[in-house]
Write a structure and sequence with these properties.
- With 230 residues, the protein is an alpha+beta fold.
- The chain folds into two domains: 140 residues, Pnp Oxidase, Chain A, CATH 2.30.110.10; 82 residues, PNP-oxidase-like (Split barrel-like, Alpha-Beta Barrel), CATH 3.20.180.10.
- 34% of the residues lie in helices and 34% in strands.
- The protein is built from seven helices and eleven strands.
- The strands form two sheets. Strands 1, 2, 3, 4, 5, 6, 7 and 8 form an eight-stranded antiparallel sheet that branches.
- It is globular, with a radius of gyration of 18 Å.
- It starts with a helix and ends with a helix.
- The mean pLDDT is 95.
Length: 230
């Protein structure tokens, strides 16, 4: 099968706790560090303060880009896998998406309710995946979007799956987390899941996107077997 470059780009963004946001003001490009999360449907979520320059620029010009990267394979930074996603930013009110962002950044609960902060969503329009040195793949918005039926199926099952795993399989989470630190699954999507212990968050990607609750079960079994083998 051909590689799923859209899946690989989503995995990079879902695993990264921060990214570079590119905005513009009066035609002048501006880059800043932001802490993002990715919604189940592949939209990027930002919790931004109106005191920040990039927020004011997005309010005037919603076209933007974000770049996330993984670890380089050598001392050469160009060997790092990285992905850029372009899209349009909009400020929204959505308690469920705010909770998803906070699940990725639990430390931010200290300031999440400050009056100058708000939730922004960036819907991907195009992208570029660079898997390493001289390994670039252009992506359309459709390439970056997970299967809509899978997104809907897992959204309906997410709460039950998380409750079941946390109640009945804490040993599996401890195995995947590498310690008995009280890890709990906090978010799930077709590409993988997030687990947290206090302010620590780990992302675990599936080997390939799953379509339903049974796919999650099989993926968790494979992940546990791999962790035991290591």
């Amino acid at each position: 099968m051909d590689p799923d470059h859209g899946f690989a780009a989503r995995c990079l963004f879902r695993a990264a706790s921060a990214s570079t946001l590119a905005t513009q003001g009066d035609g002048q490009p501006f880059a800043s560090l932001v802490t993002h999360a990715m919604a189940a449907d592949g939209a990027l979520l930002l919790w931004l303060s109106t005191l920040s320059q990039h927020t004011r620029q997005l309010a005037r010009e919603p076209r933007c880009a974000l770049m996330a990267q993984g670890q380089p394979a050598s001392p050469n930074p160009q060997t790092a896998p990285r992905a850029t996603i372009t899209g349009l930013a909009e400020q929204i009110e959505d308690p469920a998406l705010k909770a998803r962002w906070l699940a990725r950044h639990p430390y931010a609960a200290l300031y999440a309710d400050f009056g100058d902060f708000g939730l922004w969503r960036v819907v991907p329009q195009s992208g570029l995946l660079v898997g390493g040195f001289a390994a670039a793949h252009r992506l359309r918005g459709a390439d970056l979007a997970p299967d809509a039926a899978a997104v809907a199926a897992l959204a309906a099952a997410e709460d039950d799956i998380i409750t079941h795993v946390n109640a009945d399989h804490p040993q599996t989470l401890a195995l995947l987390g590498g310690s008995d630190a009280g890890w709990r699954m906090v978010a799930l999507d077709c590409d993988g899941f997030d687990m947290a212990a206090g302010d620590l968050v780990q992302r675990h990607a599936f080997a390939s996107p799953v379509a339903d609750a049974d796919g999650v079960r099989r993926a968790l079994i494979l992940a546990a077997r791999a962790a035991r083998a290591q």
